[in-house]
């Protein structure tokens, strides 16, 4: 990428000023520091090949403008007064004065294969490309977004196998099937059918469908910008009509309210084993109390690992949990939360329950995924899950209900 600069996914050209002329150019263009070492101008493209095609014309234009500024300032141009000896010759030195025989046109020209060299990366399976794409996002986006991206590819494979896109029955997971495909295997028709399949067959809300499609579109845009594929991207314009569908299916906007006293008592005194879905009982029992005592978000607690538990050296010092950038929703979410003695007991039991030899990445709540999706499992009866009003989370209940009434959270947990 000689003389090319990639900034914010867009290419620019870099024109380097000779060191002996830094002060002259800086004086001519009235630079603040009085020195100009280089001039960078955008090429208006995100494609690498298109940037190479535009590079020479942009450099020539920048050079001519710099020379014009130097000339107006009565300074010597960048090239000085030197010109090549062949500049004034009427013909190029590469041309011969002898007559050139023009060959006869053939009867039929052989077809030229368009960009045969560029077609090779397209045949590469999506698996390594997906891994490379997500590796570049590690530490930049949250683990929750990376999980949503993998979910989008898994659902795409589920759709393609359901409509018979696979030539033979696929025995592995739908996600593995998607990873075995290539960029050119997904057509515009497949993208449109996948969108309708999510809406009609899966009955997913249009806003959620838009989030799934955005993950796939971002991957194909990355592949296009990287020069891996030069064909029409199948996900372009795929969001058209989703906003109108979301407005039609929008639920009435009901303000959130805090848990009432009977609801809090019910949630805190219910036996975890009586939950409709048994595997969520213990997680609900522990996460509800941690949410009340720490005010941490649901995904921050559900993704808690052994390495994020900061153990205090002494008995009189409180333990704490650390919220890192990969699970925090904002920059302000990166923090350490001291643990109440009741919360300490819950975390300590979870740590002791881990298998022997577990590392720092061991999840304390394996019942939950890293996004912490336990949603409707918190309800205590089928009737509660169909309520029209929205309940606030446990972290908000501490502020809006318990604190104003002067009731300590520990007294609630001891009821």
Features:
8 strands; 415 residues; 40% helix; 3 domains; single chain; three-stranded antiparallel β-sheet; 8% strand; hpI Integrase, Chain A; mainly alpha; disordered C terminus
How would you characterize the largest beta sheet?
3 strands, antiparallel
Average residue pLDDT = 75
Q: Which percent band covers the strand fraction?
A: 5-15%
Give the topology string: H per helix, E per strand. EEHEHHHHHHHEHHHEEEHEHH
Pick out the low-confidence regions: 105-120, 371-392, 400-415
Radius of gyration: 32 Å
Briefly note the structural class of the backbone.
mainly alpha
Numbering strands along the chain, what is their spatial order in the largest sheet? 1-2-3
Q: Report the top-level CATH class of the largest domain.
A: Mainly Alpha
End-to-end span in angstroms? 68 Å
- CATH topology annotation of the largest domain: hpI Integrase, Chain A
User: How many helices in DSSP terms?
Assistant: 14
Q: How many distinct domains?
A: 3
Counted beta strands = 8
If you had to describe this structure to a student in words, what would you say it looks like?
This protein is mainly alpha-helical and 415 residues long. It folds into three domains: 4-72, no CATH class; 124-248, no CATH class; 256-413, hpI Integrase, Chain A, CATH 1.10.443.10. The protein contains 14 helices and eight strands. The chain has helices spanning 22-28, 48-72, 126-135, 143-162, 174-180, 188-201, 206-225, 242-248, 261-269, 278-294, 298-302, 341-352, 394-402, 409-413; strands spanning 4-7, 10-16, 38-45, 256-257, 309-310, 320-323, 335-338, 390-391. Strands 1-2-3 form a three-stranded antiparallel β-sheet, with helices on one face. A three-stranded antiparallel β-sheet has the order 5-6-7, with no helix packed on it. Strands 4-8 form a two-stranded parallel sheet. Strand 1 (4-7) and strand 2 (10-16) form a beta hairpin. It is extended. 19% of the residues are buried.
């Amino acid at each position: 990428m000689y003389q090319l600069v990639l900034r914010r996914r867009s290419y620019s050209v870099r024109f380097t000023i000779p060191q002996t002329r830094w002060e002259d150019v800086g004086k001519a263009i009235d630079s603040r520091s009085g020195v100009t070492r280089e001039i960078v101008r955008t090429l208006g493209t995100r494609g690498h090949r298109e940037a190479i095609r535009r590079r020479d014309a942009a450099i020539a234009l920048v050079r001519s403008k710099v020379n014009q500024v130097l000339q107006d300032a009565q300074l010597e141009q960048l090239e000085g007064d030197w010109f090549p000896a062949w500049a004034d010759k009427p013909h190029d030195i590469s041309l011969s004065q002898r007559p050139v025989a023009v060959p006869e046109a053939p009867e039929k020209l052989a077809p030229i294969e368009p960009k045969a060299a560029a077609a090779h990366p397209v045949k590469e399976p999506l698996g390594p490309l997906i891994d490379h794409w997500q590796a570049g996002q590690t530490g930049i986006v949250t683990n929750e977004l990376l999980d949503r991206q993998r979910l989008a590819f898994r659902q795409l494979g589920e759709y393609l196998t359901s409509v018979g896109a696979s030539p033979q029955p696929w025995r592995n997971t739908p996600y593995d099937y998607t990873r075995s495909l290539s960029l050119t295997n997904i057509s515009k028709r497949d993208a449109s059918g996948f969108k309708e399949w999510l809406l009609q067959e899966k009955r997913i809300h249009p806003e959620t469908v838009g989030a799934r499609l955005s993950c796939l579109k971002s991957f194909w845009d990355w592949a296009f910008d990287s020069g891996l594929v030069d064909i029409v991207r199948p996900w372009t314009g795929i969001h058209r009509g989703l906003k109108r569908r979301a407005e039609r299916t929008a639920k009435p906007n009901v303000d959130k309210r805090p848990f009432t006293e009977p609801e809090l008592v019910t949630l805190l005194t219910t036996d975890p084993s009586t939950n409709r879905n048994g595997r969520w009982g213990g997680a609900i029992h522990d996460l509800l109390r941690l949410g009340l005592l720490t005010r941490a978000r649901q995904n921050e607690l559900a993704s808690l690992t052994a390495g994020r538990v900061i153990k205090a050296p002494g008995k009189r010092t409180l333990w704490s949990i650390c919220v890192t950038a990969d699970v925090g929703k904002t920059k302000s979410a990166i923090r350490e939360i001291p643990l109440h003695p009741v919360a300490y007991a819950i975390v300590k039991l979870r740590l002791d329950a881990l298998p022997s030899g577990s590392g720092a990445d061991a999840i304390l709540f394996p019942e939950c995924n890293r996004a912490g999706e336990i949603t409707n499992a918190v309800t205590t009866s089928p009737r509660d899950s169909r309520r029209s009003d929205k309940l606030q989370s446990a972290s908000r209940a501490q502020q809006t209900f318990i604190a104003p009434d002067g009731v300590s959270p520990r007294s609630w947990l001891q009821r």
